Amino acid sequence: MNKTVSIIIILALVVVLGIIFFGGGSDSVSAQNVEIRDGIQYVTVDARGGYFPQTSNAKAGIPTKLIMKTSGTFDCSSALVIKSLNYQNILPQNAETEIDLGVPKAGEPLQGVCGMGMYNFQVRFN
Q1: Exposed/middle/buried for 43, CB within 10 Å: 0-12, 13-18, 19+?
Q2: Residue 64: which domain range?
Q3: Which CATH number do you get for residue 50?
Q4: Has residue 45 been placed in a domain?
Q5: Are 19 and 12 a contacting pair, CB within 8 Å?
Q6: What backbone torsions phi and psi does residue 44 show, to the nearest 5 degrees?
Q7: pLDDT tens across 65-104, in order?
Q8: Does the residue 1 lie in any domain?
Q9: Coil, strand or helix: which one is 66?
Q10: Number of structural domains, the chain?
Q11: Which helix (H) or strand (E) holds 15?
Q12: Does residue 90 contact residue 79 with C-beta atoms inside 8 Å?
């Protein structure tokens, strides 16, 4: 019995330390998926079993394109809906789909969701 309790405590510590040191999941904010090239801002989001990262921060006031990357995507995250753009499309299974966002305004986030409403992502413009 003492051995079982010890194993449970050790496993719990491993999980807690993993959450502390590795961020606890995919809903973290990322800046590594945003880049500016030739005056155009590109925000890249991976679509496969959800959207990653779930939250991105980008600059407002410059031309912006959303790049949706799929790689063997067969789930509902390939059915992308962006209501504010009146965009609804089935993404290809293995490709990069470019969506023109125009020149976003500060404080007006872009919200994307899968066709079933299970997965979502957001791009915040500052």
Answers
A1: buried
A2: 26-125
A3: 2.60.40.420
A4: yes
A5: no
A6: -105, 130
A7: 999 999 999 999 999 999 999 999 999 999 999 999 999 9
A8: no
A9: strand
A10: 1
A11: helix 2-22
A12: yes
pLDDT in tens, 50-61: 999 999 999 999
Question: Which structure tokens are listed for 19?
Answer: 């959450």
Q: Under a CB-based contact definition with an 8 Å cutoff, are residues 43 and 65 in contact?
A: yes
Closest CA to 96 of 77, 71, 63: 71
Buried b (16+ CB within 10 A) or exposed e, 81-115: bbeeeeeeeebeeeeebebebeebeeeeebebbbe
In a domain, 40, yes or no: yes
Residue 6: DSSP 8-state: H
Q: Which amino acid is it at 69? A: K
Q: Are the beta carbons of 44 and 69 closer than 8 angstroms?
A: yes
| pLDDT at site 27 | 42
pLDDT band with cut points at 50, 70 and 90 for residue 3: confident
| Model pTM score | 0.76
Give residue 6's pLDDT band: very low, low, confident or very high (50, 70, 90). low
Q: Which two tokens stand for residue 69?
A: 């990357």
Which percentage of the chain shows pLDDT scores above 70?
Answer: 79
Domain assignment present for 68: yes
